[in-house]
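Suppose a colleague, Dr. K., hands you the sequence of a protein chain of 328 amino acids and asks what its three-dimensional shape might be. Before reaching for any lab equipment, you can write down a predicted structure in token form. Begin with the sequence itself:
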Amino acid sequence: MRLRFFGNIVSIVLLFALTSCGGSSAPKSVGILLHGESRVPLMTGFLQELKALGFEDGKNMVVTALNTDGDAKQLKPLAQQLIEKKPDLLVAAGGLEAEEIKAQIEQIQNAPPVLALYINAIIERKFVRDRRDPGWNVTGIDNLNGELSGKRVELLNDLLPNAKKVLILFNPKIEPSVIGLQHAKEAAANRGLEIVERAVLNPDEIRQTMEAVQPGDADAVLLVPTAPIDNQVKDVILPNADRLKIPVFTHSRSMLKAGASASYGAPFPEIGRQGARLAEKILSGQAAKDIPFEIPLKYEYSVNVPALKKSGHEVPDVARRQVTEMIE
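The predicted structure, expressed as tokens, is then:
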């Protein structure tokens, strides 16, 4: 493995052999675009499953991964870099990456197939026209993450029965973020909870919004799926939640390592592995557009007990019966 660092961009170049593609020994190449560290567990699972499928190191399989490090201005130039390599497969780790890749290849004849590892609201954001007939050469996993925000509100209510006000930061320009807020508000109304919504468009607004929250303004934070917000969890959202002594409920288990209290959603490494199995079909010769979009095979509810206790809460019995994984 060779790691190349270009400022805020990390390029990871790995050699693999495509030994499981119908016996073909022809070299293959894969380009992966990631928007920030929150996407890395997706790529990790993807590469692990590729290896399990027989892609061995050192035999003419090249995977190039470029990471924006959370800088949205890097999406376009990095997508262009990958496209210029003319890979056999372009992989978008998330929805913003997928939208940028689509915009870049729409006018290219014989463009490479695209695999969207982790994307939501694929029809609402006009990414495809239909899950089985996308209208261009793409497939992937529709994670249903925005819709699951309602379920997260219900779980949060059972985990924090005394919480009445839930703070949600959302980006009005990102469709899954808006969908997530909508479903959260509907579930909150049914549970008698108040959603304290704050629109944020960039990292500065995220920081300013969180720093402006005062004790009593919210009893918990709920994250709806929004990559620019996810990328500020460690450095901005969690420190301010600690200041306020309120728990953070998120959609990704990977955020529990940074100190979030609970998560409900499809595990990122497993999504990556599921995506690798779709990639194998494409690299074996099947057209991406002929492979229907999938949904996650499983969802997990995890609670970070030490983080929850740090905010002054214990895990009630009703929540213990719901939890998939208790991190002590």
